[in-house]
Design goal:
Distance between the termini: 32 Å
Strand order of the largest sheet: 4-3-5-6-7-8-9-10
Helix content: 25-40%
Largest sheet: 8 strands, mixed
Strand content: 15-25%
Oligomer: single chain
Mean pLDDT: 93
Number of helices: 8
Low-confidence stretches: none
Bound molecules: 2,5-anhydro-1,6-di-O-phosphono-D-glucitol, manganese (II) ion
Length: 328
């Protein structure tokens, strides 16, 4: 039985983390500190995003990342901020990041945790002032503390996550996360530098009338995906596709809906990355009563084989995900 961490709306993230920690037997505070370190880095990135147009931080960085994407300056800046904050925080032994081909070993040998992160999700939206996000997963390391990081430490199935969440740099900035006891959302109050509990025990509607998919690739979708898109249109559902997964996911979490990045001819395994996009949002979705699959199996059951592997992603209201993947 998931005990809700009951705190009045208006409490701040720090108090909530402390309350949450008490709910965990033998919690020694490291995970609490890790969450605080992520939240802090989010404040720093939030400020840089809000000033992106003023400071010389928009545009392309001039490198290609392991994804074959042109890195944006803010991709690189956000990656540095989160990596530095987690290194300094001392609770994380290693990071896998969308923006780094190899495992980032933080040389914190005593640390218990591994973080997988998409430091900036929705990069194509940075320069056009549309919402973007950060996505993170937290795992316990498997190999003994002090020993070198092993592949088994970083390639864990999503079901092994001890925490997962996202930051949405939107019309307001929000920190939304779970440690397996439900999902809670905090709205950032810049004048105080505090995240305030604004969305307690978030639940995703079981059904919805919003579908998020890039219909530009319609003719390269598999037949069952085209059929589902047609069915949505026949029912007069709303098409909402922001091009920022975190923003689309968050709206569907609140209002009900489905986000699909299916297999296409260009991307047979879809575009989204299992380790630092799909697993975290799949945990959040399930904790809020929703569903997340790759069209055939539960995202959280997938045993990863590569740091940057892509999977088709169907996530959102349970009824919609079931229908969209029926006999996929
Ligand atoms: P990222 O910016 O971290 O590389 O991820 C962007 C993702 C996701 O946020 C968004 O929904 C999707 O890419 C958009 O892809 P398409 O432009 O191919 O639709
Ligand atoms: Mn990218
Ligand atoms: Mn992304
Ligand atoms: Mn990214």
């Amino acid at each position: 039985e998931k005990s809700r961490i009951a705190l009045p709306v208006g409490s701040n993230l720090d108090r909530f983390i402390m309350k949450n920690q008490e709910a965990f037997p033998y919690a020694s505070g490291e995970l609490s500190q890790l969450i605080r370190d992520l939240a802090y880095a989010g404040k720093v990135v939030n400020r840089e995003i809000n000033r992106a147009g003023l400071a010389d931080i928009t545009g392309a960085y001039g490198n290609e990342n392991v994804q074959g994407e042109e890195q944006q300056n803010l991709d690189v800046a956000a990656n540095i901020r989160f990596t530095r904050a987690l290194k300094k925080g001392g609770e994380v032994a290693a990071i896998i990041s969308e923006e780094d081909e190899e495992i980032i070993d933080l040389n914190n040998p005593r640390s218990k945790y591994i973080v997988a992160i998409d430091p900036l999700d929705g990069s194509s939206n940075i320069d056009v002032n549309v919402s973007i996000g950060t996505i993170f997963s937290v795992y316990r390391r498997i190999s003994p503390q002090g020993s070198p990081i092993q592949t088994e430490d970083v390639l864990q199935p999503g079901s092994a996550q001890v925490a997962a969440g996202y930051i949405l740099y939107g019309s307001s900035t929000m920190f939304v996360y779970t440690t397996g006891k439900g999902v809670n959302g905090f709205t950032y109050e810049p004048s105080l530098g505090e995240y305030i509990l604004s969305h307690q025990n978030m639940k995703m509607p079981k059904d919805g009338k919003v579908y998020s998919i890039n219909e530009g690739s319609y003719y390269s979708f598999e037949p069952h995906v085209r059929d589902y898109v047609e069915a949505c249109k026949k029912r007069g559902f709303s098409a909402r596709y922001i091009g920022s997964l975190v923003a689309d996911f968050h709206r569907n979490l609140l209002k009900g809906g489905i986000y699909i990045y299916p297999s296409t001819e260009k991307a047979p395994n879809g575009k989204l990355r299992l380790m630092y996009e799909c697993n975290a949002l799949a945990m959040i979705a399930e904790q809020a009563g929703g569903k997340a699959t790759d069209g055939k199996q539960r995202i959280l059951d997938i045993q990863p084989t590569d740091l940057h592997q892509r999977v088709p992603f169907y996530v959102g209201s349970t009824k919609m995900v079931k229908e969209a993947t029926e006999e996929a």
